[in-house]
Write a structure and sequence with these properties.
disordered C terminus; 12 helices; Heat Shock Protein 90; Rhopdopsin 7-helix transmembrane proteins; 2 domains; alpha+beta; 9 strands; rod-shaped
Length: about 450
């Protein structure tokens, strides 16, 4: 084996190892979004195939015989075809990262794909006339008179990719621009050099090295985006929780506690305990997104209702009918429903009085928790403006039920009769019946 072929084999082997490492990293990295992961799996898979074709060609170089010649021809065709596919993949990925929802509708992608079809057509036609390149009966490779024609489509695709990168530079992050610039420029430079100086496969090692750098920058970009999303989600969660605590409820509760300190210190002490428990449950919910025992959620509900009872006295009645309590529920899903029942149900009735009923029922495939009030009710299609906060609160509860346990939230309201809101939780474990009142 000659020196040049040995160098090419070493480059190809190194590229194969780097390609496998990139593929493994793609599979294990948790920061990549679904589309990016799919892209890099396809990208490194095709890159690995491209490198293996080159390794095959270098290993069998010098072997004579029909089967070796046929294998060489397959290897040359395969490496040429797969290398061009990588350029089209980059076109699509850049467009996707730039915000294109459907890259197949992009004129840039259509041009890139059309150029690739032209390139593939030239390759296939060469199998019949050998004017682009040929492998002779002695397993020797030589370029034909029209070889430069083969290079036109991939060079145009790379120029198009440079244009896409420039045109969308304001839509890409710094890491994204670095990633695409490296992969577009470095292999293109190596290919142009190799067009005029055939020998060492510079394009192999340049493509693999550029791919690794591109992958590293994309991982850095996705990791940064991941942590930004986490911070935004945490901030949103805090905003939701704080929004659920009505300012007038806090002020009224503190005012009542202040009055009780003078009139009934024992009740004041109990009210402070309820107020503390209420706030603690809100703050503790920031620490975990996992469902909590139903009885823990009920403690939060009871703390809230105890404070409201101090304010409204006999005008607010509460009834419990809990058939089952041994299950888990997403945190802060029941309390907002009870709060709505008091604020927009009982207190909006003509008399200002009413009853809030909390029920739980166990079924073979689910557990249902219902919050009912005998207030004025409403028609959902004509939800009054002053209930917009209630509507947002219900939507937040619905989203937590879906995300944390695949649950549902059903609303049944009849004007003049009241409102019933039902939480449906899939039953994953056997429930123990604990019928009775809290």
């Amino acid at each position: 084996m000659g020196t040049v072929h040995l160098i090419n084999l070493i480059f190809a082997a190194a590229g194969a190892v780097l390609g496998i490492l990139g593929l493994i990293q793609t599979l294990v990295c948790r920061y990549l979004d679904k589309e990016t992961r799919i892209f890099f799996i396809a990208f490194f898979g095709i890159l690995e195939g491209y490198v293996l074709f080159i390794m095959t060609r270098e290993i069998i170089h010098g072997f004579t015989g029909t089967k070796w010649v046929t294998l060489s021809r397959i290897a040359f065709f395969g490496q040429a075809l797969l290398s061009s596919v990588l350029a089209v993949l980059i076109t699509g990925f850049m467009l996707y990262q730039s915000g294109e929802k459907d890259i197949t509708k992009s004129n840039s992608f259509r041009i890139s794909f059309t150029l690739w079809l032209l390139y593939a057509g030239i390759l296939i036609s060469n199998l019949f006339h050998g004017q682009i390149y040929s492998v002779n009966e002695n397993n020797g490779y030589s370029r034909g008179p029209y070889f430069p024609l083969l290079m036109v489509p991939p060079v145009l695709i790379m120029i198009l990719n440079l244009y896409i990168l420039w045109e969308n530079r304001h839509k890409l992050s710094v890491n994204q621009k670095r990633a695409f610039a490296i992969y577009v420029i470095v292999p293109m430079a190596a290919m142009l050099v190799q067009m005029w100086s055939f020998g060492v496969h510079l394009i192999v090692i340049s493509s693999v090295t550029a791919a690794i750098f591109m992958f590293s920058y994309i991982i850095a970009d996705q990791t940064e985006r991941y942590y930004i999303r986490e911070m935004e989600n945490h901030r949103l969660k805090v905003d939701i929780l704080l929004a659920q605590i009505q300012p007038h409820f806090l002020f009224n509760s503190l005012t009542i506690i202040k009055l009780l300190c003078r009139k009934d210190p024992a009740k004041a002490e109990a009210a402070v305990a309820d107020f503390t428990a209420y706030l603690r449950r809100h703050m503790e919910s920031l620490q975990s997104d996992l469902p909590i025992p139903f009885e823990e959620e009920m403690k939060h509900v009871q703390a809230y209702l105890n404070l409201q009872k101090l304010r409204f006295g006999d005008e607010l009645n509460v009834a419990y009918d809990l058939e089952v309590k041994d299950f888990r529920i997403p945190t802060l899903t029941l309390q907002p429903l009870v709060e709505n029942a008091v604020t927009y149900g009982v207190r909006r009735s003509e008399s200002g009085c009413g009853t809030v009923t909390i029920r739980s029922r166990s079924f073979p495939d689910r557990v249902e928790v219902c919050v009912e009030d005998d207030g004025p009710g409403f028609i959902r299609e004509t939800l009054p403006d002053d209930k917009e906060r209630s509507h947002i609160g219900l939507q937040n509860v619905r989203e937590r039920l879906i995300q944390q346990c695949g649950g549902e939230l059903l609303i049944d309201s009849t004007p003049g009769k009241g409102t019933k809101v039902t939480i449906i939780l899939p039953s994953k474990t056997e429930m123990r019946s604990t019928k009775g009142l809290v």
